[in-house]
Structure formats: C-alpha cells, structure tokens
C-alpha cells in the first residue's frame, strides 16, 4: 500500500508564546492535520527555564541564547507530537526557514511572522533531534498509539 498510515515517524512541534498570544493555535495545527499528519501528543504549558535551556542546549554559546530562553519561558507554549510519513522533514518544509522574511509564502513562518526572534513555531531538525525533544517534553503515557480508522467511514 502507498497509504502513509503505516509510517510512524514522529516529530516534535512547538507553538511558541507569540503563537499562543496571537491565538494562532488552531490555524497552525489545522495545517498539519489537513496535510495528513496525526496529532498524537498535545499539551499547553509554560516551560521552566531548565526545560527551555535543555531544549535549546545546542545554542547555549550563541549570543541570542538568553533572549531565546527568556522568550520561550515568557508564557504558555503548545507542545505537540506529530506523526506520519516523513514527518520530520515535511514539517520543516511546512514551517519555512529560521528567518521569517526568507520563508516562502505558503509556509507557516512565511505566512504568519516577520521577526526571527518571534518566529512562532519550532520543529525538530532531524529524526535524532525529534527523539530527544519528544523525550524532553513528554512522558511516554502522554503520547497515544494512534491507528487511524478506515477512511471509508470517517
Ligand atoms: P527552531 O529550533 O526554533 O525550530 O528554529 P530553527 O531550527 O529554524 O533555528 P535554530 O538555528 O535552531 O535557532 C533556534 C531559534 O533561535 C532564534 N534565533 N535567533 N537572532 C538570531 O540571529 C537568531 N538565530 C536564531 C530563532 O527564534 C530560532 O527559531
Ligand atoms: Mg532548531
């Protein structure tokens, strides 16, 4: 079968505090659902400093690190696990590039943001990062084992 329901790649998506404040949760989540991805983990939380620093640990020597952590801990985020065929790479394509002004129209950042420090969404950059980040933000029981039903009756 070419149906992608069997492909279980997972990625970690996070709607940053600017997206939540701007009430863009539904707009952004709907793009992944309409594309064909399943939401298998979902929660709203205000991250601790420790969690935000661990999430962005790869950037800890960068000049923007403190500002990035200040921003991420400034209010609620939506932590999401998306599942489906080639989820990691396709989500990054849907998100656009780091700088919103360089992100093509049609991408999430390209349609909804203009500032690199307020680029509304995070997506894991590799399968390995996705595994690490999902483990950081979710306990195993918070992620469902989801088998979509036959599309003939939904
Ligand atoms: P993310 O991790 O949030 O999905 O973003 P990304 O992969 O596209 O970009 P990354 O290089 O991982 O950077 C993480 C976040 O740091 C902020 N940043 N600011 N001022 C700057 O030059 C700068 N560079 C990066 C961005 O908010 C970026 O999303
Ligand atoms: Mg990144």
TrEMBL record:
Keywords of this entry: ATP-binding, Kinase, Nucleotide-binding, Transferase
- The UniProt entry annotates the active site at 122 (pros-phosphohistidine intermediate)
Provide the GO biological process annotations.
CTP biosynthetic process; GTP biosynthetic process; UTP biosynthetic process
Q: Name the reaction it catalyses.
A: a 2'-deoxyribonucleoside 5'-diphosphate + ATP = a 2'-deoxyribonucleoside 5'-triphosphate + ADP
The keyword Coiled coil belongs to this UniProt entry's keyword annotation: no
Q: Which residues form the Nucleoside diphosphate kinase-like domain?
A: 8-145
Q: Which family does it belong to?
A: Belongs to the NDK family.
UniProt-recorded name of the protein: Nucleoside diphosphate kinase
Organism, scientific name = Andalucia godoyi (Flagellate)
Span within the full-length protein is 40 to 193 of 196
């Amino acid at each position: 079968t070419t149906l992608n329901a069997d492909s279980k790649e997972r990625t970690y998506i996070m709607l940053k505090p600017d997206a939540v404040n701007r009430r863009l949760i539904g707009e952004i989540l709907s793009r992944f659902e309409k594309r064909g991805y399943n939401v298998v983990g979902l929660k709203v939380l205000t991250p601790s400093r420790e969690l935000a620093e661990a999430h962005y640990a790869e950037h800890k020597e960068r000049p923007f690190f403190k500002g990035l952590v200040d921003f991420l801990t400034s209010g609620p985020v939506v932590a999401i696990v998306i599942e489906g065929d080639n989820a990691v790479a396709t989500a990054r394509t849907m998100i656009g590039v780091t700088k919103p002004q360089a992100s093509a129209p049609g991408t999430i950042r390209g349609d909804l943001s203009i500032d690199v420090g307020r680029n509304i969404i995070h997506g894991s950059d590799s399968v390995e990062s996705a595994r690490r980040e999902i483990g950081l933000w979710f306990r195993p029981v918070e992620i469902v084992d989801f088998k979509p039903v036959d599309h003939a009756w939904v």
